[in-house]
Amino acid sequence: MNRISKTFRNLAGAAALAALGATVPLALPASAAQAKPSDLAEAVAALRAISTMRADFTQTDRSGQTVGGVLTLKRPGRIRFQYEDSVPMLIVGNGKSLTMIDYEVNQVQRWPIRNSPLGALLDPNRDVARYGTLKPTGNPDVVSVEVRDTEHPEYGLITLVFVRKPSAPGGLELVSWVALDSQNKRTTIRLANQRYGIPVSDNTFRYNDPRQRVRR
């Protein structure tokens, strides 16, 4: 078992999936402009404007362990984290649940999307405009939105960070997020090389169940 796989296995469970949801705001000068109320509406519009997206990602846990891979998003509610070859794991969301597949130990775990901070990004019923709060970034070109359901603290929180980019849907590009679950486990996801509006088959969000036995 390699070191990265062991790290991921130690994170396995609801906390691991929940942790896929929060972002540390970029370090920016404190003297710059503050967030405007309209920024929240713009961020919500930008999220809703994404039909499909594919991006490279790096994932860093609270211990500093970092792995990479490719993220594929298709609204409403579908997501795939395809990790690099050294990590024999896969996370997919089908709109209702998040599933983590560990091919090294042939294990599958599943949780409702609504119970994860990622629900803010994926759950059509999670109203970012209602539960989102603007966080100061000190830069008018960077918008940070913290999403937290105060009635359900067990869902954790997610902070989404956008950068103004005219060519991105809604004029804002999602560049990172930090998820903090109810056990205070933190995971940071950073995106790069975002591509929008690309064809994405629904089969992308299916997986081979390693528990299935070959029929004789």
In brief:
With 216 residues, the protein is of the alpha+beta class.
Q: In words, what does this structure look like?
A:
The protein is an alpha+beta fold. It has a single domain, classed as outer membrane lipoprotein receptor (LolB), chain A (Clam). 16% of the residues lie in helices and 38% in strands. It is built from 5 helices and 11 strands, in the order H-H-H-E-E-E-E-E-E-H-H-E-E-E-E-E. An 11-stranded antiparallel sheet has the order 6-5-4-3-2-1-11-10-9-8-7.
Features:
5 helices, 11-stranded antiparallel β-sheet, outer membrane lipoprotein receptor (LolB), chain A, alpha+beta, 216 residues, globular
* Biggest sheet architecture: 11 strands, antiparallel
Order of helices and strands: HHHEEEEEEHHEEEEE
Termini distance? Answer: 30 Å
Structural class of the secondary structure composition? Answer: alpha+beta
Which CATH first-tier class would you pick?
A: Mainly Beta
Q: Tell me which CATH architecture applies here.
A: Clam
* CATH homologous superfamily descriptor: Lipoprotein localisation LolA/LolB/LppX
Low-confidence stretches: 7-33
Give me the number of helical elements: 5
CATH topology: outer membrane lipoprotein receptor (LolB), chain A
Q: Output the radius of gyration.
A: 17 Å
The number of strands is 11
The dominant shape is globular
In total, how many domains does the architecture comprise? 1
Strand content: 35-45%
Helix content: 10-25%
Strand order of the largest sheet: 6-5-4-3-2-1-11-10-9-8-7
* Overall mean pLDDT: 80
